[in-house]
Design goal:
about 100 residues; mainly alpha
């Protein structure tokens, strides 16, 4: 009975992760006016900087502790979540994406 419950939680978390990744890809592909392109560009550059910092920390963590490498799905999910957060922040700062 416990395995069924855990598998449902895992599938729900996996669906959320895929939705975040899909949202990131769709929002990058959308066209818009200059303001919406500015918002996306700022969110992408902030996400890129945060991703580089995250990769540096992961490299140091793996090298220092002799631990296993990073799971690519979780890394992509973290980057998608960061992009979503930065997109929301810049959307509130500069206005609606339209």
């Amino acid at each position: 009975m416990d395995i069924t419950w855990i598998s449902y939680v895992f599938l729900a978390a996996y669906a959320v992760l895929l939705a975040l990744i899909g949202f990131m890809l769709v929002s990058l592909a959308r066209r818009g006016d200059e303001r919406s392109r500015l918002i996306r560009t700022k969110a992408m550059s902030a996400t890129f900087i945060a991703t580089v910092v995250l990769l540096v920390f992961e490299t140091v963590r793996v090298q220092a502790g002799k631990q296993e490498g990073t799971n690519p799905l979780w890394l992509l999910t973290a980057v998608s979540l960061l992009f979503l957060v930065f997109l929301i922040v810049y959307k509130k700062k500069y206005g609606d994406l339209g």
